[in-house]
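in:
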């Protein structure tokens, strides 16, 4: 019985550690809504490597906004299915704990400076924002 209690203690301690690192709160009543902000940039000159490099530089600076939990910067994949959209130049996806954290990001000086310094590079952006409970599945 002593070994079982020790094992249970270690399992519970491990789960508690994981919960504190991942932001999970105890109990179903405290599930937070993860906020995902996905932006697709369409450069004015999509084949201009210098402009693409400048935008990437700006996005790496933008990733320093403190409320961002995770960032992914990407380019269209080489997949070929009829439902896949590949007409953008650069994709920027970032995760926030909730909508409040994303709203802070929208008005953060780093974000405003990014728009001011790099918006001349793109002809349009398309944004998809999504919310949902954390850790589904």
């Amino acid at each position: 019985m002593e070994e079982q209690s020790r094992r249970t203690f270690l399992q519970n301690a491990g789960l508690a550690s994981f919960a504190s690192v991942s932001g999970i709160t105890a109990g179903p009543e405290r599930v937070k809504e993860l906020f995902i902000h996905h932006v697709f940039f369409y450069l004015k000159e999509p084949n201009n490597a210098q402009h693409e490099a400048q935008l990437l530089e700006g996005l790496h600076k933008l990733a320093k906004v403190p409320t961002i939990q995770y960032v992914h910067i990407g380019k269209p994949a080489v997949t070929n299915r009829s439902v896949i959209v590949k007409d953008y130049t650069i994709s920027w996806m970032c995760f926030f704990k909730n909508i409040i954290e994303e709203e802070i990001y929208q008005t953060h000086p780093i974000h405003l400076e990014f728009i001011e310094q790099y918006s001349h590079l793109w002809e349009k952006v398309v944004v998809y924002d999504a919310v949902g409970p954390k850790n589904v599945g």
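note: Residues 2-22 form the longest helix (21 residues).
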